[in-house]
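In this section we walk through a basic example: taking a raw amino acid sequence and producing a predicted 3D structure, encoded as discrete structure tokens. The instruction is simple. Fold the sequence below.
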Amino acid sequence: MHSKRFKQVQEFFHAYLRQNGLKKTHQKDLILETFLDAEGHLSVEDVYDLVKKRDRRVGVVTVFRTLKSLTACGLAREVSLGDGLTRFEHSYRHPDHHHIVCTQCRKAIEFFSPELGRLQQEIVDRYRFQPVLHRFQIYGVCLECREKRPAAREARHDTERIFERDALRMALSMERQGVEFYRDAAERNQDPAGREVLLQVAEEEEKHLRQLEQSLLKMEQQESGIDQAPAFLHFNSEQLKGLLPDLSAYETDGELRLDARSSLEMALTLESRSADYFRSLADGFSDTAGKEVFRQFAEREMQHCEMLNRSAPSGPA
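The resulting token sequence is shown next.
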């Protein structure tokens, strides 16, 4: 973990220890640092083995108690993979997620789906529940175990970074669909003034698209292999397509006719829908880099709405 980030986490942990009348020690700090430097789902023994390589004086009981403290203050969360063994995973700046667990090799794949999240919320709202804790895990047998071959070794990447990558990919998908929508509408539009408005909007969206592409490229250059890491955020591009306005209302005898005002109104509809969707998505996550991607994307869409409003003609159509 980056030294500045670790310092922030360490100060948070120390504050928790003070508030609960517990002492801060070098051993606890070492366990915290060792845990944060490791990825995956770690048992007490896993963490103990890693800590012993750095300080053989640390006991397994100290490791267990410290992991429990990390869980109590929200820096870790407990995970059960169905084998009766409690494991721990990162919680700080890591998005809530679910697991697919192999019952033979105990490999656990982390994932999150916005659709599944919305379904969960709909159900608890229907029964007027206030969610406190939820776990969703799928148990099965992975491909390697079914084919009786060793699991492929994969480079481990921080879940937060993979979530950030997937959030960028989701924003890119929305922006590409928007550009394609505006370009297609402009090409079909029989009204010259409306066509010009749509082309201008498409040009603005393409600028943002290039910025997002550069952000993703920079991440992939900084962290080798992250582009090949399995997806964490599973989203449905067809659902994003549902945010696009229906053009059939503007068709006459099979021809699309959008004057300048109607073109602006349609663009405002799309940009505001996109902003609302990604803002709502961001609100469902704790502070993470992926949440910030969604928040910034929604903010950019709202800025585009404001720009379109300023350019809208005044007076009657």
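Looking at the output, two observations stand out. Residues 118 and 284 are 10 Å apart (CA to CA). The chain has a mean pLDDT of 90. In the next section we compare this with other chains.
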